[in-house]
Structure formats: structure tokens, C-alpha cells
Design goal:
Length: about 300
């Protein structure tokens, strides 16, 4: 299948036709992967280009995601091995009630492992298709530059137009796959652990913390108590990971009707794809006199 099947008008265009004939068509990418744009990404349908693809960022997220999924797979495989060993011992000792309970646990872990394996294979399939479209777009872009340097003829103009279409089609496919890949990123459970400021934090001080990831927002207020403890009106928020956006954290101090900006920082989410909760401490002020402590569980 080809990206498109134009009737090229000159021998000069034959190499372009050969290049395109070896590529995947836009429809074949979506049908082969059985991609159905979910409700959250229904704007990524045919003809709607939302952003420019960022292959380097997608590669970083894919590698972090695959590493995290493999960590979960290894942990559950170790649990399955442990339960299976106990299952054999229990069978020899003929403790039927405990034996059946272990059998139920083993089946549950086995089902979860199969789901993880399918999840990993789906992510790999999406990224493979993404890389193919990326290489096709790079090839079409290079050929477009080469054709633009050739004498302006009717055939070269037609080839340039077709190459432009191919670049646009590959770009659209990459955006579509990025949207489909985001569905497989899971969730980040972010817990508020409080501010650290030593002498900067005094009893009675009130602060507002605003956390944003793309269009997702979390605004919470806290107060420093007389015993130096902190109370916050919210403690946890779920964020859906995003391929392109970083966490943006803004802290302001509330002084009556006025607010004083303490600082704004950004935090990358690549390190959050882990089986263990990640303790995050970020410097809110440039000198680090006030820090924010968060815990992220993926």
C-alpha cells in the first residue's frame, strides 16, 4: 500500500512513487492497529491536526513507560513464583481451604500478568507504527527539498504538491498515534506532603498551591498551624499523563485580600513511571528557601 496513488507525470517522479509504494497508507495504519479515537481524543480524527509531533519526547516517554510496565511485570511474576511454590507445599499438606485460597490468588495474578503483557505489546505496536510514520515523513521531507532545487516544471510542481500531501498525512498519523498512546499511560496519583521552609514558614501563614498538567488543574489551600503542622483542604489528586506537557507548580502566599507570588516551577513526569511511589521535592524559590513536597504513585 502507498501513502497515496497518484499518476506521476514524468520519469523524475518514479523514485518518489517507489518510495511511497513501500510505505503504509493512512487508513492501513489505523485499521491494522484497530485504533478508535477515545472520547478524550476525538479531536484527533481524520483531518484534524492538533499539534506538531515531537518524536524525541515521545521516545523518552515510551522508554520510561516500557521500563515501568516491565517493572510491574517482574514484580507480579515474582509474586506468582512465590505463590506457586506455596501452592505445591500446601497441596502436599492437604490443607484444602488454604489450598483453594492460594489457587484463587494465583489465577488472579496470572490474569493480571496477561493484561500487563498485552498492554506492553500494544504500546510497542503503537510506537513501532509511530516510528514508521516518522521515517516516512522524514523521507518525504528530504525528497521535497530535493525536488524544490530542481528546475520548475509541471512534473516537478505536481511531485512537490504530492510530497506536501504525504508529509501532511504522515504528520496527521503521528498525531493520531500520539493520542492513542496517551490512553495507555495510566494515572498519576499526586499526594500533597506539605511545604518545607524552615524560618520562612510561620504559624498563621496561608498558602495556595496550583498544580497544572495541560488542561488538568489542582488548586488547594493550606495553613501553618501553631505547632508547625500544616492543614490542607485537599490531599490527593489524580492526573492523566500527557506526552507533551510538564507539571507546572505555582505557589502563592495569601495575605488577607492580597496574594504574593512565591514561585513557579515546572517538573518533568518521565521519572514518575515506576512501581514505587516517587517522593518529589521541588524548590519553589530560586534560593530554595521554600520547597514543596509531593508524592507521586503511578
Amino acid at each position: 500500500a502507498s501513502l497515496s496513488s497518484p499518476a506521476f507525470a514524468s520519469p523524475l517522479s518514479f523514485s518518489l512513487f517507489s518510495f511511497c509504494s513501500k510505505s503504509l497508507s493512512r487508513s492501513s495504519v489505523r485499521s491494522r492497529l484497530s485504533l478508535k479515537p477515545p472520547k478524550a481524543y476525538n479531536s484527533l480524527q481524520k483531518g484534524a491536526l492538533i499539534w506538531d509531533p515531537k518524536p524525541l519526547q515521545v521516545k523518552k516517554i515510551f522508554e520510561a513507560l516500557k521500563k515501568g510496565l516491565n517493572e510491574y511485570l517482574e514484580a507480579h511474576q515474582a509474586e506468582l513464583d512465590y505463590l506457586s511454590a506455596r501452592h505445591k507445599d500446601t497441596k502436599r499438606n492437604s490443607r484444602l481451604a488454604f489450598y483453594y485460597d492460594l489457587d484463587k490468588q494465583i489465577r488472579s495474578v496470572e490474569r493480571y500478568i496477561r493484561k500487563l503483557e498485552f498492554h506492553i505489546s500494544k504500546v510497542e505496536e503503537l510506537y513501532e507504527a509511530y516510528c514508521i510514520q516518522c521515517r516516512l515523513r522524514d523521507g518525504a521531507t528530504n525528497m521535497k527539498q530535493a525536488f524544490s532545487l530542481s528546475p520548475a516544471t509541471k512534473a516537478s510542481r505536481e511531485s512537490l504538491l504530492e510530497l506536501y500531501r504525504n508529509v501532511q498525512e504522515c504528520t496527521e498519523d503521528m498525531c493520531f498515534i500520539e493520542g492513542a498512546l496517551e490512553v495507555h499511560l495510566g494515572e498519576f496519583h499526586v499526594k500533597m506532603k506539605g511545604l518545607v521552609g524552615f524560618a520562612r514558614l510561620c504559624p498563621g501563614d496561608q498558602y495556595e498551591v496550583f498544580v497544572r498538567l495541560g488542561r488538568q488543574k489542582w488548586r488547594l489551600k493550606g495553613k501553618i498551624e501553631t505547632d508547625d503542622s500544616q492543614t490542607w483542604d485537599e490531599e490527593e489528586k489524580i492526573f492523566i499523563p500527557n506526552l507533551h506537557e510538564k507539571f507546572e507548580i505555582k505557589v502563592t502566599e495569601l495575605r488577607g485580600l492580597a496574594t504574593v507570588l512565591v514561585g513557579v516551577v515546572t517538573c518533568d513526569s518521565i521519572s514518575f513511571f515506576s512501581t514505587k511511589p516517587q517522593a518529589i521535592i521541588v524548590d519553589i524559590t530560586e534560593l530554595g528557601t521554600i520547597k514543596l513536597r509531593l508524592e507521586v504513585l503511578w
